[in-house]
Structure formats: structure tokens, C-alpha cells
Specification:
The chain has 147 residues and is mostly helical. It has one domain. It has 7 helices and no strands. Helix 1 packs across helix 4 and helix 2 crosses helix 4.
Length: 147
């Protein structure tokens, strides 16, 4: 499936985020926006949480069985979700998240096998660990769980 035109520039930004170690900042911002707009995210809440949990598990070094391309696509989708000025600005109530949902749907369709493998891994973890994956890493925490 072809990459959505409105996501392409975010793929480059996602690579920079991963290289520069700014993933915790992104995850914290996604968590804040998800809480603020929870009523508007009902249809994609679980998918968004899965993407966040994947990034948290990858950052902490607990799950590395995701391809670099899939990880970049996930981070790019989260960046796109955060951007208030994307193809349809989030300020347009009722319409602003439609393009965000479309990008999330593309990520899930394109990387379905990898995301389902992560979901199976996550669901096999103890409940407390599953809950911990919903908490963004600390801002000073390095990748792999090192400080």
C-alpha cells in the first residue's frame, strides 16, 4: 500500500526523533493529547495505545522484534497525530482528526503482522507490565533502559 502523501515528510522527522533520543518527549505529548481529546478518540483509542506501548517497549529495550521501517512508520504516525497543522487542521472540530485516523489506519494496514506480533507479546506480559507500557519513559531515561 502506498504511503499517504501527507505522512511522507513525517517519516524523515521520525528518523530524526529516534536518532536524537527524543522519543520520550513524543510519547509524553501523545499521552497528553490523548487525555485532552479522549472523547474524540473513541474509535482509535486502543490502536493509539498499542502504538504508544510498542514505542515504550522498544525504547526500554524490552521488545526489539519490530523492523526499523515499521518503527519509523509508527513514530511518524504519532508525530502526525500531534501536528495541529496537518492535511486537515485539528482546529476544525469534527473534521480535524479524520486525516489522523486515516494515517493510523494506513500504519495498521501496512504493518499489521508486526503490530499483531507486538500485541501478542504485550498480551502475554503480566498485567503490571502491560500497564507500565502505557507510561511514557522518563525524559532523562536513555534507550534500552539505561540512565
Amino acid at each position: 500500500m502506498k504511503t499517504p502523501w501527507n505522512l511522507k515528510r513525517y517519516l524523515t522527522q521520525a528518523q530524526r526523533f529516534l536518532r536524537s533520543g527524543r522519543l520520550p518527549l513524543l510519547l509524553a505529548a501523545v499521552s497528553r493529547k490523548s487525555i485532552r481529546q479522549s472523547w474524540r478518540l473513541a474509535g482509535v483509542r486502543e490502536e493509539l495505545r498499542l502504538l504508544q506501548a510498542l514505542c515504550v517497549a522498544w525504547w526500554r529495550g524490552e521488545y526489539r522484534a519490530v523492523s526499523p521501517q515499521a518503527l519509523v512508520a509508527v513514530v511518524a504516525a504519532l508525530l502526525y497525530f500531534l501536528s495541529p497543522l496537518d492535511a486537515i487542521p485539528d482546529l476544525l472540530l469534527g473534521l480535524g482528526l479524520i486525516d489522523d485516523f486515516a494515517v493510523l489506519a494506513w500504519v495498521f494496514a501496512t504493518w499489521r503482522q508486526e503490530l499483531e506480533a507486538f500485541r501478542a507479546w504485550r498480551d502475554a506480559q503480566p498485567v503490571d507490565k502491560q500497564q507500565a507500557l502505557l507510561t511514557p519513559p522518563e525524559l532523562g531515561q536513555e534507550a534500552g533502559g539505561r540512565r
